[in-house]
Amino acid sequence: MNKKIIWTVIGLIFCALAYFYVSPYIVLNNIKNAAQAGDSKKVSQYIDYPSVRQSLKDQINTDMLQDMRDEQDHFSGWGQMLASTLLDKIVDVVVTPEGMTMVLQGQGLKEVDQDKSQETADVKRQDKPEYKAGYTSWLNFEVQIQAPESSKVFKVMMVRDGLSWKVHKIIVPLR
User: Fold this and answer.
1) TM spans, by residue (predicted)?
2) Which domain holds residue 13?
3) Residue 150: which residues within 8 A CB-CB, separation 6 or more?
4) In this structure, are strands 164-171 and 153-161 parallel, antiparallel, or unpaired?
């Protein structure tokens, strides 16, 4: 009787550890399926929008500040500061449940009104991007996405949120 209880407890512990290990992969699959179905509400469950918006704004502003340091013209610096403010507003508009669903579906903003049959034919001709995913720590998970024709790597950073995961940061190569 005691051996059955011990083996049951060991089995439950093993199942719990296995779930904790595969849980970010399950979340990625859920995000992919929800995006393909166009279910923005379900996609939103897995994204921390304020954090993603702030990370994109910080990346853009850092890149623009670097450009301002490189420029000696004061008018271009002023223009870049105005552009930074405008880009902050654009990030706020794009990083929404509907916007993120479109991005995850592989659609750009200008492709929304195009015929789906044309899009399907174009997607079939394109090479698929390469994905690499793995833990960076017990609480952090990283997905690297690289298009076959580009050397730039997009990164999606996820953090553990209770028993699930949330997209916390998106790193876009700006240069």
Assistant:
1) 6-28
2) 2-171
3) none
4) antiparallel
Burial class of residue 9 (count of CB atoms within 10 Å of its CB; 0-12, 13-18, 19+): exposed
3-class SS of residue 153: strand
Find the radius of gyration of the CA atoms of the chain: 21
What's the pLDDT at 142?
A: 93
Domains contained in the chain, number: 1
Q: Give all strands of the β-sheet with 130-137 in edge-to-edge order.
A: 130-137, 140-146, 153-161, 164-171
Q: Using one digit for the tens of pLDDT, what is the confidence trace for 133-175? A: 999 998 999 988 877 777 778 888 999 988 889 999 988 877 7
pTM: 0.71
Helices and strands, number each (H, E), in the chain: 6, 4
Q: How far apart are CA 155 and CA 133, in angstroms?
A: 10
- Both tokens of 151, joined, read 């050397």
Q: In 10 A of CB 92, how many CB atoms?
A: 13
Consecutive 10-residue averages of pLDDT for the chain (175 residues): 89 93 92 85 90 88 74 65 77 82 60 46 58 90 81 87 89 78
Nearest Cα residue to 102 out of 17, 38, 18, 171: 38
